[in-house]
Design brief:
This protein is mainly β. Helix content is 5%, strand content 42%. The protein has one domain: Nucleic acid-binding proteins (OB fold (Dihydrolipoamide Acetyltransferase, E2P), Beta Barrel), CATH 2.40.50.140. Strands 1-2-3-5-4 form a five-stranded mixed barrel.
Length: 144
Protein backbone atom coordinates (compact mmCIF):
# COMPACT_ATOMS: atom_id res chain seq x y z
CA UNK A 1 0.00 0.00 0.00
CA UNK A 2 1.44 3.43 -0.92
CA UNK A 3 2.04 6.04 1.75
CA UNK A 4 2.34 9.82 1.57
CA UNK A 5 3.71 12.28 4.12
CA UNK A 6 3.52 15.75 2.58
CA UNK A 7 2.43 19.01 4.19
CA UNK A 8 2.33 22.63 3.09
CA UNK A 9 1.92 25.72 5.21
CA UNK A 10 1.80 29.45 4.53
CA UNK A 11 2.35 31.98 7.27
CA UNK A 12 4.71 34.45 8.89
CA UNK A 13 8.05 33.60 10.47
CA UNK A 14 7.73 34.04 14.23
CA UNK A 15 11.27 33.11 15.21
CA UNK A 16 14.26 33.80 12.98
CA UNK A 17 16.11 30.68 11.78
CA UNK A 18 18.88 29.48 14.09
CA UNK A 19 21.50 26.80 13.55
CA UNK A 20 21.24 23.78 15.87
CA UNK A 21 23.68 20.92 16.48
CA UNK A 22 23.12 17.41 17.81
CA UNK A 23 24.72 16.54 21.16
CA UNK A 24 27.31 14.32 19.48
CA UNK A 25 28.04 16.95 16.81
CA UNK A 26 27.20 14.72 13.85
CA UNK A 27 24.08 16.59 12.66
CA UNK A 28 23.39 20.24 11.94
CA UNK A 29 20.06 21.79 11.04
CA UNK A 30 18.28 25.13 10.90
CA UNK A 31 15.13 25.63 12.97
CA UNK A 32 12.49 28.37 12.97
CA UNK A 33 8.81 28.80 13.80
CA UNK A 34 5.97 29.71 11.46
CA UNK A 35 2.68 31.29 12.55
CA UNK A 36 -0.27 29.96 10.54
CA UNK A 37 -3.78 31.40 10.95
CA UNK A 38 -6.30 28.61 11.46
CA UNK A 39 -9.30 30.38 12.96
CA UNK A 40 -11.99 32.61 11.55
CA UNK A 41 -12.35 36.38 11.43
CA UNK A 42 -14.69 36.22 14.40
CA UNK A 43 -12.45 33.85 16.37
CA UNK A 44 -8.85 34.24 15.23
CA UNK A 45 -6.48 31.43 16.13
CA UNK A 46 -2.80 30.86 15.39
CA UNK A 47 -1.06 27.52 15.01
CA UNK A 48 2.72 27.49 15.46
CA UNK A 49 4.64 25.14 13.16
CA UNK A 50 8.21 24.19 14.09
CA UNK A 51 10.20 24.09 10.86
CA UNK A 52 13.49 22.22 10.53
CA UNK A 53 15.81 22.20 7.53
CA UNK A 54 18.43 19.46 7.21
CA UNK A 55 19.35 20.19 3.55
CA UNK A 56 22.81 21.19 2.37
CA UNK A 57 22.02 24.89 1.85
CA UNK A 58 21.13 25.75 5.44
CA UNK A 59 23.21 28.93 5.38
CA UNK A 60 20.89 30.44 2.75
CA UNK A 61 17.90 29.89 5.03
CA UNK A 62 19.67 31.72 7.88
CA UNK A 63 20.75 34.56 5.56
CA UNK A 64 17.45 35.10 3.77
CA UNK A 65 14.54 34.25 6.08
CA UNK A 66 13.85 36.81 8.80
CA UNK A 67 11.29 37.19 11.55
CA UNK A 68 8.05 38.56 10.08
CA UNK A 69 8.62 37.29 6.53
CA UNK A 70 5.64 35.71 4.80
CA UNK A 71 6.70 32.30 3.47
CA UNK A 72 5.29 29.13 2.00
CA UNK A 73 6.94 25.91 3.21
CA UNK A 74 6.54 22.34 2.07
CA UNK A 75 7.92 19.15 3.55
CA UNK A 76 6.99 16.18 5.69
CA UNK A 77 5.81 15.86 9.27
CA UNK A 78 8.27 14.30 11.71
CA UNK A 79 7.27 13.11 15.18
CA UNK A 80 9.80 12.18 17.85
CA UNK A 81 9.37 11.61 21.56
CA UNK A 82 11.53 13.21 24.20
CA UNK A 83 11.48 13.05 27.99
CA UNK A 84 10.79 16.23 29.95
CA UNK A 85 13.33 16.89 32.68
CA UNK A 86 10.72 18.30 35.08
CA UNK A 87 8.47 15.27 35.45
CA UNK A 88 9.96 12.56 33.20
CA UNK A 89 6.90 12.44 30.96
CA UNK A 90 7.32 11.51 27.29
CA UNK A 91 6.21 14.41 25.11
CA UNK A 92 5.84 14.36 21.32
CA UNK A 93 8.07 16.71 19.36
CA UNK A 94 6.26 17.48 16.10
CA UNK A 95 8.01 19.42 13.35
CA UNK A 96 7.94 20.01 9.60
CA UNK A 97 11.07 18.78 7.81
CA UNK A 98 11.26 21.48 5.15
CA UNK A 99 12.46 20.54 1.69
CA UNK A 100 11.07 23.58 -0.19
CA UNK A 101 10.31 27.16 0.79
CA UNK A 102 9.20 30.24 -1.04
CA UNK A 103 8.76 33.89 -0.11
CA UNK A 104 5.33 35.40 -0.51
CA UNK A 105 5.41 38.83 -2.13
CA UNK A 106 4.72 41.77 0.18
CA UNK A 107 1.04 42.57 0.58
CA UNK A 108 1.60 46.31 0.70
CA UNK A 109 0.62 46.54 4.37
CA UNK A 110 3.81 47.94 5.86
CA UNK A 111 6.06 45.60 3.89
CA UNK A 112 6.42 47.77 0.79
CA UNK A 113 9.80 49.15 1.87
CA UNK A 114 11.32 45.73 2.53
CA UNK A 115 14.00 44.72 0.06
CA UNK A 116 13.47 41.14 -1.14
CA UNK A 117 16.37 39.48 -2.96
CA UNK A 118 16.24 39.10 -6.73
CA UNK A 119 13.97 36.15 -7.54
CA UNK A 120 12.68 36.00 -3.97
CA UNK A 121 9.11 35.16 -4.89
CA UNK A 122 10.25 31.99 -6.62
CA UNK A 123 12.93 30.66 -4.25
CA UNK A 124 12.35 26.96 -3.77
CA UNK A 125 13.66 23.43 -4.07
CA UNK A 126 17.36 23.94 -3.57
CA UNK A 127 16.76 26.48 -0.80
CA UNK A 128 17.60 29.68 -2.54
CA UNK A 129 18.84 29.55 -6.12
CA UNK A 130 16.96 32.07 -8.26
CA UNK A 131 14.95 30.44 -11.08
CA UNK A 132 17.09 31.88 -13.87
CA UNK A 133 20.11 30.04 -12.46
CA UNK A 134 18.36 26.67 -12.57
CA UNK A 135 16.98 26.99 -16.10
CA UNK A 136 13.47 28.28 -15.40
CA UNK A 137 13.75 31.58 -17.29
CA UNK A 138 11.99 30.08 -20.34
CA UNK A 139 8.69 29.67 -18.48
CA UNK A 140 7.32 32.83 -20.12
CA UNK A 141 7.56 31.09 -23.49
CA UNK A 142 5.25 28.20 -22.57
CA UNK A 143 2.04 28.58 -24.64
CA UNK A 144 -0.40 27.62 -21.86
Amino acid sequence: MPHLNSCSFMGHVGQAPTVKHSNDGTKTWVEWSLAVSTGTIAQPKTMWVKCRNFTKNQSKVVERIQKGDAVFVQGKIDVNAYTRKQDGAATPDVSLLVNEWQWIKPSGKGEADKQYPEGASTVRGDMGTPPEQIGLDALDEIPF
